[in-house]
Design goal:
The structure is a homodimer. By secondary structure, chain A is mainly alpha-helical. Chain A is 66% helix and 0% strand.
DNA sequence: GCCGGGGTGAACAGTCATGTTCAGAACGGT
DNA sequence: ACCGTTCTGAACATGACTGTTCACCCCGGC
């Protein structure tokens, strides 16, 4: 398929973004995309793509590694205030920010093959669990909730918020608060008339 | 690869389950699985699979249609008590029960090509929205929450609960209550020292 | 101007999934 | 035993993707 000059230059601009981020998004939207499609979307030629990552497998694993890097940094950044609401908010914000990468990581069964990556994954997940556990001990999260459910719900909210942003439904700056509020308080109506929810102009 | 007689007869038993359900699970776990793998997993020959569904695309769309059927039935079943907590619980239970099928439907961008399916999808989704909206008007769900966020969170909880069950972390009978409680109350600690030992669905 | 690195397009062989056909086995009903 | 249906294994043609190579171009440094 021929690349139109216009389309190519348009893609060129996208090249400024880290290659692997673009790849993550493409492969997330179309898991079966060919390398030619991936390359075109990233604004480079298939040959060049092959020069950086010899095989498809290598490329996928590189995306996984980068996603893990990002996740790691996000978790590290909340090390200072681990158990507070603000800490949770910050963690959510950082993770939602990297929604596509993380979603790619979480949804790719193929990445389990890579032992090194799996080890890092477990590592970061444990640090995530530690943050949540700390929040539980601080009385921010319910003590009775199993840790795995906390974690899975966190993932679900990150993914949902990121998708809503990408879909244009949710403003990026609103996302962390919405996710945090949902995580902590749910979406049920406040018990009595005491309005705890943000007053919202009717739609 | 040759199929061992033992493995084959084992698969045969699985044939009792609707073919499309098995396909949904396989394609969910390994989106890139070949038709040969799908057929083997379903306990039939590739030839037979081709006889039922001429092309891969046709097969995928059939799975999507079936998933939509199931979803439709789940939503219909709560038509009698639309706005209550019990109604929401029932909806969650039915959807979690069909977690793999629904997840397959939600995660398959390729299905958007099928116009008929897309129309049905929108239809069911709207009925889902109606149920949630009703619950909001009844004071079960917070009035300020945007409908799309309600819906997405519902999806996320269904998917997460179903996955937790499949992973062996969550008992199927516990799932609806856990999901409902999380949806309504979140996972934050109760405001004061009022000891609530377990995720309560106190009425 | 010369040079080198990175990028590009084109072509190639190899591999694999797909879709199709066919002859025959297994099964169930008569 | 007969017959029709369904499933099966095998083989085949086709097409797509992959991974590789090579000649060439662009661009910035020397």
């Amino acid at each position: 398929m021929t690349v139109h000059p216009g389309a190519l230059s348009r893609s060129r601009r996208a090249t400024k973004r880290p290659l692997l981020d673009v790849v993550a998004e493409v492969l997330l939207a179309q898991p079966g995309a060919s390398l030619a499609e991936v390359a075109e979307f990233a604004g480079i030629s298939r040959t060049t793509l092959h020069k950086h990552y010899a095989t498809r497998d290598e490329l996928v694993r590189a995306v996984g590694q980068r996603a893990t890097d990002i996740w790691e940094q996000a978790v590290d950044r909340v090390a200072d205030e681990p158990g507070t609401k603000a800490g949770l908010r910050q963690l959510l914000a950082a993770m939602i920010d990297s929604g596509p990468q993380l979603t790619f990581l979480w949804r790719n069964p193929a990445l389990d093959e890579d032992n090194e990556l799996t080890q890092r994954y477990i590592d970061v997940e444990n640090r995530c669990l530690a943050v949540l556990d700390r929040a539980r001990k601080e009385g921010v999260l319910a003590a009775s909730t199993p840790d795995w459910w906390l974690l899975q719900t966190l993932y679900a909210l990150v993914y949902t918020a990121a998708e809503s942003i990408q879909f244009g439904k949710l403003a990026p700056l609103d996302a962390p608060d919405l996710a945090l509020s949902t995580l902590l308080n749910g979406l049920g109506a406040p018990a009595a008339g005491a309005g705890s929810g943000k007053p919202d102009k009717g739609e």
